[in-house]
Amino acid sequence: MIHGIDYFSTVVRREDLPRLSLPEVAIVGRSNCGKSTLINILSSRRRLAYASKTPGCTRTLNFFLVRERGFLVDLPGYGFSSVSRSEKSLWVGFIEDYLLTRCNLSGTILILDIRREVTALDQQFLSWFKQTGVPVYIVLSKVDKISAAQRKSTLHRVKDNIANNLGGMNLLPAIGMVSSLHKTGLESLTDVITSWF
Question: The pTM is what?
């Protein structure tokens, strides 16, 4: 858990980004992968970040201040089919601009639903991180939805998939598994975020 997380601002344009010189940790992933839920669990507050049952509700960059040490940044989810192509294009453009040019960005958490295959968009985000050199931590979410045996085989499959696309196992980011139901995997994730701050 990370104590002292509070909502700071919602951003829809580059010029509205916070001007504080604090490190930022971006949280990205497909729509409905559990980004907002993860922020709520990390903060021990149920409704700090809006977690909707309807995918695609986060359409802005939402900044959460962590005890004047840095920001957690909840980015719009990607890949939800009912959103128009033009709107998707705007989201992806805004996210790409933020991830590739934001000097405050000190780390990125990519959340992947463990029940879903790694997509081309997931790989695209990883290629952006490779370009910038910003460290990445991959979180496999919703691990309580599958058996322990399935988790092990899925972890190996995800590692192979990502490593093949990045150019080898030596380029594979660290991967952790998190269950919001059982509150497992949070200690390692908290350590990573703290180190980036």
Answer: 0.86
